[in-house]
Amino acid sequence: MATPLANIIRFLTAGITTVSFVAAINFIIDPLQLFWHHGVFYAYTADSRLQNAGLIRSQDYNAVLMGTSLSVHLRPSDVNRTFGVRAVKLAMSGSDSVEQRFVLDVAMARRPALVFWELDDRTFFESPAIDENKFIRPDLYRRNLKGIIGYLLDLDITRESFFIALSAIKPFKAIAHGLAAAQYLKFYGDEVDEIGTLPATTDLSAIYNAGSIRAAFATAEKYPKEIYFRYNYQTLVRNFERDFISIIRDHPETKFCVFVPPYSILQFVTIRDVSPEALQTIYDFSAYAFPRLLSLPNVTLFDFRVAQDITHDLDNYMDLLHYRPMVDQRVLSLLAGGKYRVTRAAPSDSIERLARQVATFDTATMRPHAVQPTSDAGGPGCR
Length: 383
Fold this sequence. Notes:
About 50% of the residues lie in helices and about 10% in strands. The protein has two domains: about 10-65 and about 75-195, no CATH class; about 205-375, no CATH class. It has about 375 residues and is of the alpha/beta class. The chain is elongated and about 90 Å long. The relative contact order is 0.12. It has a five-stranded parallel β-sheet, with helices on both faces. A two-stranded antiparallel ribbon has the order 1-5. The chain has a two-stranded antiparallel ribbon with strand order 8-9. The protein has helices at about 5-30, 50-60, 75-85, 95-105, 140, 145-150, 155-165, 170-180, 205, 210-220, 235-250, 265-275, 275-295, 310, 325-335, 350-360, and strands at about 45, 65, 85-90, 115-120, 185-190, 255-260, 300-305, 360, 365-370.
């Protein structure tokens, strides 16, 4: 008959064995590639807040793409081909400036030569400190003891590791993709270039069309006005200085290619009709941010909000903000070519043009009262 001490020893032995097994599996498979760069088994997840901790460690890069869901469909290979760099994409859907600064701070340890940074005024809304954020695991990025132990003993990571290993067997690969489609698994992608992108088989016209954005516009007008109270000028400026300007200023050796994405014109028309005060705050914030950015010698700035051939073509959008992947390609081309570049001599020019476009847009016809000529003024592109 076993003694109480023997039972305790068996229990502790079983526990230590189980913990060691879990840690060994997670260490060997290493889904995030925190320890092994392109080991025998690996996969990628579209959960960018999790995946980015591994990409910073595993990828060979000299350029970084940072932004929100408006940049998440871009492929690093397209950035590489356009600019002759090796880019890592760290864009995070719905990210705030605190998250972006934290992730970019870690990535800057590799001293990239070029950073493409999407400037979205909504990222500067009030947001929690990074360690209070429920959607990101900051200790994974810090690679401190808490982060490493948490990763190695994470049973969710063990499940992912198990299926990553099984996916090396062809029949199980199809099963793993099915489980990923059912959102049981996170890690299933084979190509780092495809993280966050739409599958090649996607019918883009069914997602991005004038009908979709018109429906979004009709719904947006019914939003409670309180949503626009988040456009507080002092908050935007404070967070912009803390999370955006500080990194650029602290890394004079890096060139920052900053761009305001081509939101649909209906995004601003909605705010015009629902909350004129919020729209004025957007203009005021831009009027502050643009000269501030251009006072830094390592910044090139673009404002694509005035690109009428994009923003007024409603078939480009699925809602008021998100545009089809072909617009991503156009953005890269414009960044390389220098069109819509904001100049130090006239930093408010694009803001004034945007204000005129918004003021003259007729929601009855879904067209501007008068089409403005497109200016090619700008300068050299991002290099």
